[in-house]
Amino acid sequence: MAILKLYGSSFATCTRRVGAVLHELKIPFELVSVDVMNGAHKTPEYLEKQPFGQIPYIDDDGFILYETRAICRYLAAKYPASGLIPTDPKANALFEQAASVEVSNFDPSASKAGFQLMMKGFGSPYDQAVVDAQLEILDKKLEGYEAILSKQRYVAGDYIFGQNFTLVDLFHIPYAPLVASGGSDIMTRKPNVARWYNELVARPSWLAYKDTGVQTTTEY
């Protein structure tokens, strides 16, 4: 069977999210670097695979899939023993609830602030006003996270079904670390959010590519 290919950019946020899940599942993969700075993601050849001209997409032995969370769900479903997607109907409903929380309440502000902070880290022009405004919104959203995490270890966990780490926790990578960069304590000022966040960024799946960006990985 051909090795899975991940088409993306090493330090791009969505590529890093998929890379974390691949590492979590110990799936060998080849990173095929897409030169987004020179428009490689807008060529006819690329658009044939990803019609929106975005990164990343995967080629899993001829199966093409794009959209980051769809890719992550596919990988977790392919390796169900990982438990990253619960199969019990009620546990899965709690998982889907948490997934909706992430995409609706965390990602909008975290991604806007995180993008600006990423540009700052690269030494490129950035908008501090956007960072400040979005972190203020995010801080309010994290009050909900604090309430959730005061009762359970992970965002999709529940005492009935155990304190299981799931794909939803990984969905918060890489924006949670990004918004925590530049001296902000937004991810650590609330005790239960801080506990969860510190555990998240200590996982080998994040640390593996934290400084180097996503790299081809055939052995774990």
UniProtKB/TrEMBL annotation:
Keyword Acyltransferase (UniProt): no
PROSITE patterns, per database record: GST_CTER (PS50405), GST_NTER (PS50404)
Biological process according to GO: glutathione metabolic process
GO molecular function terms noted in the UniProt entry: glutathione binding; glutathione transferase activity
Swiss-Prot/TrEMBL catalytic activity: RX + glutathione = an S-substituted glutathione + a halide anion + H(+)
E.C. number(s) listed in UniProt: 2.5.1.18
GO cellular component terms given for this protein: cytoplasm
Pfam families linked to this entry: GST_C (PF00043), GST_N_3 (PF13417)
This protein's UniProt keywords: Transferase
Domain (GST C-terminal) ranges: 88-220
Keyword Cytoplasm: no
Domain GST N-terminal: 2-83
Record-given protein name: glutathione transferase
Provenance organism: Mycena albidolilacea
